[in-house]
Amino acid sequence: MISTPLLQALHRRLIRLSGFGDVRPEDLTPLPTTGLAHDHVRVAGHGVLLRVPRQSQLGLSAASNLTYQAACFERAGPGGHVPGLHAVMLPEATVPMGALVVDEIVGRPPVLPADLPAIVRALASIHGLPVPPPAARRPLRDQVDPVGATLREVTAQARHLDAAGLHPEARAAVEEELAWAGTFARRSGRPPVTLISFDAHPGNFLIAGSGTAVLVDLEKARYGAAGFDLAHATLYTSTTWDVSCHAVLGTADIAAAYGLWLDQVEATLAESCRPWLLPLRRVMWLWSVTWCAKWRVESRAAAKDAKDRAESAEDWSADLSDAALVDHVAGRVADYLDPVTIAAVRSEWLTANPLTDLLPLPG
């Protein structure tokens, strides 16, 4: 839960912003913490939330992290499926990570698989946005080679596999997938680059009264491959992450979601992406399980001090989160690294099913 001194400092910063001078201290209400990277504070009477980072998942400094997150909201905004950005409170001594002022979305958690089409349409709205020329893409990450860039992240996270203490069967399966990924990365050709969320698990969406899905958590957006978002929205490691929308999708549900996305986006984008969607699903799963290994190791460490956080605000220490949330994440990580779970997920691409029928491999 957000501290009282930080809440008071946020109020002092907020009333200096245009349009918020009438906000009283009692108008700020911290919301229950559901994630590892942010706190949220409702501002009564204004229809906005303060989005207050606790760390940077990209390893950025506090100021760079906030600038990056603001750009995520701004770039995805024209698609109509993300909250509007109202203001940026840059970091200072009393608000060391800064804050964003964004629209509060009134909605409910998704119910899967019923709301999966709405999520897919929201993602398609982002993927279909015009991609600016390379010089105009900063500060967002620009992955000219989305496969190689993401596998470099996977490799960095995989350094934690030994210390994470995986069951031998689980470790062997992950190593097999890493070997496949290394071979796959050497193939010629690459998927087209679009704006993507790179954090599209269903728990990051709310369903508005109209039935529209709104992606409310934007901090890792980049120019990369749309297949990563589709995977993140439908993999077991995503659909069972958040207790509010926990669900296990069947391969027919997943295939239907991919089919809808192919129908929603422009035809040339759909056809150029289609051969890459299944292999990028494998890469996204590898990213997720190696992140789990990283979290298991780094959550045991003490929180960073101010000097270390000035250079990189990434910090997975359990000290920064509520004990119940840490227990929940630890339980999810244990499940995702379990050899039985790993075998079940891999069956999606190692056996014939509706998904493999729909998504041919690149030639």
Automatic annotation (TrEMBL):
Annotated Gene3D superfamilies: 3.90.1200.10
Entries under SUPFAM superfamilies matching the protein: Protein kinase-like (PK-like)
Residue intervals of the Aminoglycoside phosphotransferase domain: 109-253
InterPro entries, A to Z: Aminoglycoside_PTrfase, Kinase-like_dom_sf
Pfam families: APH
Entry protein name: Aminoglycoside phosphotransferase
